[in-house]
Amino acid sequence: MDVSNASRRTFIKQCVIGGVAVYSAPLLWEMSRANASIISPELAAQWQTQVSGQSKPKFRNDGIAKVTGQKVYGRDYRAMDMAGWPKQQGYAFILRAVDASHVYQGFSLDHLPASAKPYKVITAADLARDKVKLPEFYGDNMLLPEGQTADYLGHAVAILLFDSFPAFKQTKSLLQFDNTLLRFGEKTAFVSDTKDPYASWRLIRVEGENGAREDTYSPLHDGLFFPSVKHHKPVWSGDANAQGSVSERGLYYAGEIEKQIASAKADQQWQVLEREYRTQIIDPMMMEPEAFNGWFDASSQTFHTVITSQSPQDFQEMAVHMLSSGPLADKVKNLVVHSPYIGGGFGAKDHSIFPYYGVLATIYANGPVRLANDRFEQFQSGLKRHPFIMKSRLAVDKATLKIQALTSQMTVDGGGRVNFSPSVTSVGATAMQSIYYTPRNDIIATSYASRNPDAGSMRGYGTLQSMTAMEGMIHEMAAELNVDPFKLRAANVMESGQRNTQGAIPNGTLRYREMLDMAELDPVWQNRADNKARYEAKNPGMRYGVGFGIATKDYGTGAAAPSAAVRLSKDGKIILEIGFIEMGTGTQTSQAVVVSESLGSFAHEVKLAEIDIWDAMQLVQTDNPYIISQQRQDEMTANPRWTPVKAMASSASMSAYYQSHVTRIAADIIYRHGLWPAAVSIWNELYFNTPMGKTNLNHSRDGRWTDGKLTAMGFPPLSIDILAKRAHDLGLVVGVMGHAFNRWAWAEADFEIFGTKERIALDALALQYGEGDKYHGSADRKARMNSNGYHLIDRQAMSYPKAELNNAMVTYYAPCATLVEVAVNEGNGEVSLLSSHTWLEAGKVIVNELVEGQIQGGLAMGIGHALHEELPPFEAGAGNGTWNINRYKVPLARHVGVWSQRHTILPQLSETDPSRGIAEVVMIPVVSALVEAVYQATAVRFYELPMTAKKIKEAMA
Amino acid sequence: MSQSIKLTINNQAIGPIDVGDGTMMIEFLHEYLNLTGTKFGCGAGVCHACTVIVDDEQGMSEVVRTCINGVERFNGKRIRTVEGHAKQNAQGEITALSPVQQTFLEHFSFQCGWCTSGFVNESTALIERLERKPIAKDNVEQVIEDALGEHVCRCTGYVKYYAAMKDLILKTEGLTLS
Question: Are A69 and B82 within 8 A, CB to CB?
Answer without folding.
Answer: yes
